[in-house]
Specification:
The protein is of the alpha/beta class and about 575 residues long. The chain is about 30% helix and about 25% strand. It is built from 21 helices and 29 strands. Strands 1, 2, 3, 6, 8, 14, 15, 16, 17, 18 and 21 form an eleven-stranded mixed β-sheet that branches. Strands 12-11-20-19 form a four-stranded antiparallel β-sheet, with no helix packed on it. Strands 24-25-27-29 form a four-stranded parallel β-sheet, with no helix packed on it. Helix 11 (about 235-250) crosses helix 17.
Length: about 575
């Protein structure tokens, strides 16, 4: 059926005027049939998809699914000293996703203001583009004992400390990025190469660069039509994850009795990294893949939530597989599902809902021999089909036309592979007399958990999840007083207990320097909600509780001067 579909696509492309070479490319990239690893049915909470609160706790609807939900508490794992001890026999390959400029965080004026402090040459007012901007994690700076250090450099310092103190047997550092951003990454690494090369136990691998890709043009009814004949958009995290899993399959392991673990995660947060507890546990308990989640809070409205999907295998038998439901899927299912998605994990009686952090770890020492055996039965083409990420139907504008970029998620790669393993656990892979199943291969390679979820409770959240996606994130972490950089551990530490404040700033404060100027010297203490609208100066103040500031005038207003106060608690101005 798939070959017939490819032939039809090829002929349709030829009729549309494409050359043979272009038609061949299109038939390869556009896969008409469903990926063999999953059902791809629409997810509906409470019907065929059950997140944590519908399986555990007072509001559970399907308590019978608990044994099939492979969740593990970080709080429990970190109390077992054997996990940290086991990490001393782990070689950790860190593979941060550093996608590029990160234009959602406007920082040109911020960098120009810091230009001389950073020791950079030239007139910053005359510098534009890549000469001004670096990758996002290279452009946000923290004060470390009077010296400005960017996010990526801080994370490298942490890795150097961890390997020097023998927390791991070794560390391999490899940046992963998209075409066009590699120069920015190399600019950051230039100042780190010598230190890395002189530190025993850590090595620097070549940066992985994924190419620009075609886009799928949308027709008048917004349906997908055909590919662009030129690459117009960068690849996404799904492509980087695809490379990680393919590397795990294809690259031979050293014969040194050590455990090799790869970690893929977003680079844009100081604490966005795994720790020895996680890695040691994966080694000790023979875990092949671990996805890291955190307990959902009121701030986590956009990201995906992990749960159990009810699906069927090729013979019609019901199967339970781990999956993720995104906000867009809930919205597509109607207002009721959209509301339920937002409330899940926050209602009275709800147990924790597992919010995706985009960090996942792969135990190469278990997965490599397992995948080698699996591919020997199903073939390399089928394997590559299985680990392809699902397309994120995210509409963009290119060249004045609507299109869909060929992008997917890191989690999609992992979940598709796990789905294949789950749905085919009892399927005979061998055409010869001796039957061999996926379950047999799991047992052969001593895999206790093919995919596990490590959920980081809210009290530990900041240890692993401190993303900087916006100017408000950067202000909160660098200037608000809520955090401090620990130069002993090179981790970001909270100075106050409690949940993170909900921040709502209007578009003028998307620019980082504009926000820093407006709030210069202002700190927070027990802040729960803060909204800022209009041209405002709110400097050298203390914010507590719920603070809402709105200026409807065209001119800037100094709120301290206007109100005659510099402590604002549970107030609307």
């Amino acid at each position: 059926i798939n070959e017939l579909a490819k032939t039809l696509i090829h002929e349709a492309a030829a009729i549309a005027g494409y050359s043979h070479g272009q038609a061949s490319q299109i038939e390869t990239v556009v896969d008409i049939t469903a990926v063999t690893s999953g059902s791809h049915q629409p997810l509906v909470m409470g019907q065929n998809f059950f997140p944590g609160p519908l399986v555990f706790g007072d509001n559970a609807k399907r308590e019978d699914l608990q044994e099939s939900f492979p969740k593990f508490s970080y709080k429990d794992l970190q109390f077992n000293p054997a996990n940290v001890q086991a990490s001393k026999e782990v070689v950790l390959k860190v593979r941060p996703f550093n996608g590029g400029l990160g234009t959602g965080l406007e920082r040109a004026s911020y960098l120009r203001k810091l230009w001389k402090k950073l020791g950079r040459k030239g007139d910053p007012e005359q510098i534009e583009g890549k000469d001004l901007l670096g990758a996002k994690a290279s452009d946000i700076f923290f004060d470390a004992e009077g010296k400005l250090i960017c996010v990526s450099e801080i994370k490298i310092k942490r890795l150097l400390k961890e390997v020097t103190e023998s927390e791991y047997a070794g560390i391999i550092y490899q940046q992963m990025t998209a075409k066009g951003a590699e120069e920015l990454i190399e600019k950051m690494l230039a100042g780190q190469r010598q230190t890395i090369s002189q530190t025993e136990g850590i090595s620097l691998a070549d940066t992985v660069v994924i190419p620009q890709l075609p886009v799928i043009w949308a027709g008048k009814d917004q349906t997908m039509t055909f590919l662009s004949d030129q690459p117009l958009a960068p690849g996404g995290h799904g492509h980087l994850g695809y490379i990680i899993i393919n590397d795990v399959y294809s690259q031979k392991l050293p014969d040194d009795n050590l455990t090799y673990i790869d970690a893929g995660y977003n680079e844009d947060g100081i604490n966005n990294m795994p720790d020895p507890v996680m890695c040691g546990w994966m080694k000790k308990d023979n875990v092949a893949i671990a996805m890291v989640t955190t307990t959902k809070t009121g701030l986590d409205q956009k990201g995906g939530q992990i749960g159990i999907e009810l699906t069927t295998d090729s013979e019609g038998n019901q199967r339970l597989v781990l999956n993720i439901m995104e906000k867009a899927q809930a919205e597509a299912a109607g207002d009721k599902q959209k509301k339920l998605f937002a409330q899940m994990g926050l209602r009275e009686g709800d147990s924790e809902s597992f919010f995706n952090t985009n960090m996942a770890l792969t135990n190469r020492s278990l997965l490599h021999p397992f995948l080698q055996d699996l591919v020997s039965y199903i073939g390399i083409d089928a394997f590559l089909d299985i680990i392809h990420p699902d397309l994120i139907k995210n509409k963009k504008d290119k060249q004045g036309k609507t299109c869909y970029q060929l992008e997917g998620a890191w989690g999609s790669v992992i979940l598709n592979l796990n789905c294949y393993v789950t749905l085919n656990k009892d399927t005979n892979l061998n055409t010869e007399d001796n039957p061999v199943t996926v379950k047999d291969l799991l047992n052969k390679h001593n895999i206790n958990h093919f995919l596990a979820v490590i959920n980081v409770e809210e009290e530990y959240r900041d240890l692993f999840f401190s993303p900087i996606k916006s100017a408000s994130d950067a202000w909160l972490q660098t200037e608000s007083g809520l955090y401090e950089l620990d130069t002993q551990t090179w981790k970001l530490k909270r100075t106050q207990k409690g949940s993170l404040p909900a921040l709502s700033f209007d578009d003028r404060y998307k620019d980082l320097q504009t926000l820093l100027d407006a709030l210069a010297g202002t700190k927070i203490e027990g802040l729960t909600k803060f909204s800022l609208k209009g041209k405002v100066k709110l400097q050298n103040s203390l914010l507590k509780g719920t603070v809402e500031i709105e200026n409807k005038l065209d001119k800037e207003v100094d709120i301290v001067e206007l109100t005659g106060q510099n402590v604002f608690e549970d107030i609307r101005v």
